[in-house]
Amino acid sequence: MAGELVPRKISREQLERIIQRAAELQAGEMDTGEGMTEQELLKLGSEVGIPGRFLRQAMYEEAAGGAALEHDFLGRWVGPRMLLAHRVVPGDRTALEQAIGEFMTEEEAMTPKRRLADRTVWERQKGLLAEMKRGLSLEGKAYHLARALDISVQLNALEDGYCHAELAADVSNLREQSVAGIGTLASVGLVGTLILALVPGLVLLAWLPLLAGLGLSGLVARAYRGKAMRMQTALEQVLDRLERGEIRPKPQLTGPRASAFMRIASEIKRSVEDVAQTFRQPPGAPPPPSAKPPGSSGHP
Prior knowledge:
Elements: H1 12-29, H2 38-48, H3 52-68, H4 73-77, E1 82-90, H5 93-106, E2 110-115, E3 120-124, H6 128-136, E4 150-159, E5 162-170, H7 172-198, H8 207-244, H9 260-280
Antiparallel strand pairs: 1-5, 2-3, 3-4, 4-5
Helix pairs in contact: 2-3, 7-8
């Protein structure tokens, strides 16, 4: 029959190109002017059979990706000032907001900076107890997120049971410190070059201070990129735990809750007791037997 397609198998790469081209052809026939609203895009997607969840996810990812791009000189040479991680995670938005709020407060030693309509901005907790918690690091945590200027958390519901989670870290404070160090090293190297250039017989060596300053500046920039990479990994790890359901709201317990000071004091006491028990035990001695339950006579 004329015009009938010959049955053949279409690969995944071909499928993506066909769908993209079909969307371009359809968009070319539509009069969208300078663009379209989100509601118009969702309506268009429903007409061609694309679920709203995937369209919303694509829109959120497009907005996040555009915000994360940095084309300036410092962004290309030193490193970005904003780090972004986003993913679709299972769960209700209200429950996820509560869970991540408890996680940021208790496990990352951060406190709300601003609560906006669409996101919550977190900053480093201040005070002696918070500094003790981060400094002692009894559980071996690095507290990478607390080193940022702030962390923005945004959750958008896609459909029942799924949300698009976006974590954005403002690390401009860390980059400014690195840029200041780079400027100082480069300036010292330039001054050294100028001084040597004025000394007779040392003109050939005059470039050494400047080259050394530029080399050390490159090491500082590299160190900052390492910090940014560790921060990016920390953001992804939070999303990993959200995706696996490891970060979840804690049940509300009745009765008074122990203060932060008492919780930290109990952690310190437990660590000291463990260390003391290790020193009291002679080398090669077996571990102490577990305590017998009350009422046990010890006889079979």
